[in-house]
Amino acid sequence: MASNSASQILAITKTAPYSKPRASGFLQSRKPYLNLCCLSQKFSNDNALFCLPNSKSFLLAKELEERNSNNHSPTLREICQDHVPGNVLRRLEEVGYLVPTDVQREALPVLFSGNDCILHAQTGSGKTLTYLLLIYSQINPKKSAVQALIVVPTRELGMQITKVARMLAAARHMDPELEQKSYTVMALLDGGMLRRHKSWLKAEPPAIVVATIGSLSQLLEKQIFKLDSLRVLVVDEVDFLFKSSKQVSSLRKLLTSYSSCNNRQTVFASASILQHRRFIHDCIQQKWTKGDVVHVHVNRIMPMPACLYHRFVVRKF
């Protein structure tokens, strides 16, 4: 090969034929459920809803159908402008959040309507910002009480969510009266900071708390703070928490004993929820959520092919 020539290897990946996977072993839906997945083609090709057959749910389905039939794709501001404070929306635009993701476009109207919701979407799809926008639409910065609680399985995830929540909390109010009272976000994660946070919780409770279930249960059992004023409860990576034998009992107690689903809006978020129909049934039967809970499933992962053929082409230039 000449010195002025080179070889470039181009990888060509070809999907091998594979048999169609068998139907999954999800439990059959039990009455009084209505499976709206059969109507999902009217909304889009990559999302589906599952909810109860009440008038509110049918109105949501109709609204989604009408919105998706329209060629105009709403911006994040257009979706949130009647619900989220203007200073938070300006902060969103400052950091570059202009166009909603699929999960934000589908879930935010459901959340703003007051429904409990199960956000079922892949990692990186925008679930965190989705439920944070709901939280900022509900909390009152003038009120000194815990109004929103985000439960996470790990310290690392809690730190990521806290960073985004504080980024939004840095938004400045145009109203001089509210400028003196900003949104406060506290991270109750496993570590040596819990002692310092105890005095802060008693003196001036934050509006938003991000906590691991272990740290949260410890403080609730000691009555360091209460959830009487809780407006929004979010459980992120809910499938992981329910699989953990050490955490599931504390989570169940949080969902039913320390606060009532009738007094709050509950959001479960996860990238993978196996047997989601059974999970929705349990949410309602165990009173983890209200009966109008809506399952928003977007960007469903397609099955992987059985095998891949790799072929290489050597190109001389």
Please explain how this structure is put together:
The chain is an alpha/beta fold and 317 residues long. The chain has one domain: Rossmann fold. 38% of the residues lie in helices and 18% in strands. The protein is built from 13 helices and ten strands. The chain has helices at 40-43, 55-69, 76-80, 86-94, 102-112, 127-138, 155-169, 176-179, 194-203, 213-221, 238-243, 248-258, 276-285, and strands spanning 7-15, 47-50, 117-120, 148-152, 185-188, 208-212, 232-236, 265-270, 294-298, 308-316. The strands form two sheets. Strands 2-9-3-8-7-4-6-5 form an eight-stranded mixed sheet. A two-stranded antiparallel sheet has the order 1-10. Helix 5 runs parallel beside helix 6 and helix 10 (213-221) crosses helix 12 (248-258). It is globular, with a radius of gyration of 23 Å. The model is unreliable at 1-53 (pLDDT under 50).
